Amino acid sequence: MNRKLLVLAGSLAALLPHSVLAGETSPPTAPVEVVTDDYYGTKVDDPYRWMESGKDPRWMPWLKAQADHTAAVMAKLPGRDGLFKSIQALSGEQVSVGMVRKAGQTLFIIRRDRGAEDPKLYVRIGKMADRVLLDPATILGAPQALDWWVPSPDGRYVAVGLSKRGTEASVLYVVEVPSGKLLATKIPATDFGQVSWLPDSSGFAYLQLVGEQGTPTYYANNVTKLHTLGAAGPDPVLIPRDQAPVKLSPNDFAIVDFDVETDTALFAVADGRREFKLYLTSRAALLAGKPEWRRVGDFEAQIEGAEVLGNDLWIKTTRDAPNGKILVTPLAKPDLATAREIKLPGNPVIERMLIQGNAALVSTIEGSQNGLWRVSADGRATRLALPFAGSVNLLSKNERTGEAFIGLVGWLTPNDIYHVTPDGALHRMNLTSSPEGYDPSRYEARTLMATARDGTRVPYTVISRKGRAAQGPGPLLIEAYGAYGSSYLPFFQTTLLPFFDRGGSYVFANVRGGGEFGRDWHYGGKAQTKANTWNDAIDVAETLVRDKLTTPQQMSIIGTSAGGVMVGQAVNARPDLFTGAIANVGFMNPVRYVSEQNNADIPEWGGPITDAATFKTMFDLDPYQHIKPGTKYPATLVVSGLNDPRAATFHSAKYTARLAAATTSGEPVMLRIDFGAGHGMGSTRSQRDAMWADIYSFVLWQAGVKEFQPPR
Question: pTM for this structure?
Answer without folding.
Answer: 0.95
